[in-house]
Amino acid sequence: MDEKTGRYERQILLAEIGGKGQEKLAASSVLVVGAGGLGAPVLQYLAAAGIGHIGIADGDTVSISNLNRQILYGDDDIGKLKAELAAKRIAKINGEVKITSVPKMITDENAAEIISGYDALALCTDSLSARKIANRACVLSGTPFVDGAVSRFHGTVMTIIPGETPCYECIQGGSAQPRETIPILGAMAGWVGCAEAMAVIRLLLGTRDASRGSILFFSGSEMTIEHIPVKKNPDCVYCGAP
Q1: What SS3 state is found at 95?
Q2: HSE of 195 in the Cβ direction (CA atoms, 13 Å)?
Q3: What are the tens digits of pLDDT across the range 70-118?
Q4: Pairing between strand 154-160 and 214-219?
């Protein structure tokens, strides 16, 4: 077994992946929107799995309050751009992966350009407005994505396939709420982020799971995972009936 194959030996041994699945991952591209508490584990595990091209979109800088959960960064990184730091750290995990750093917040004006060319997105931002903007751009372009969110001792993961599943707007319709400081235990972000990375990998492999068409609800206080079915909103302004 050569060195390159050896890196992925343990996952190639999985019947659900194998050599062909690994080739599919290597040929795939994922844009991770948000390089914070969820983005950190998502980025690390996507890189370790051998995703061929990973984009990192985040215009924020590291602050000391990030450090209880954003495990890509440390004290010396305070004040520096997360997207650029994350790109350097991910490159050390797997030098075979192409990494594109996009040190910008996603907006109505730049969303279509930023997501263009990627096979899938992982939404890891705590901004409701950014998630709604990304949802709209993905629905319009037909780009599938996995949305993750975490607050306090709870988190959610949902895979959204335009034209097949409910979109984010179906669930979070109405105007975006103003941002506020969200209480959170760092390990909760790690748990949900790992699940989001798993959902992205399964999406790229074409493997269906319960995160399609339902919300996976993680409870850190009860240590449980529930599947909450959701339905498309026929009146949704983005994916509803014409």
Answers
A1: coil
A2: 24
A3: 999 999 999 999 999 999 999 999 999 999 999 999 999 999 999 999 9
A4: antiparallel
AA letter at 78: I
Average pLDDT, the chain: 93
CA torsion through residues 196, 208, 91, 8, sign: positive
* Residue 156 token pair: 């959610």
Contact between 126 and 36 (Cβ < 8 Å) = yes
Closest CA to 96 of 133, 47, 139: 47
Reduced to 3 DSSP states, what percent helix, strand and coil does the chain have, rounded to the nearest 5? 35, 20, 40
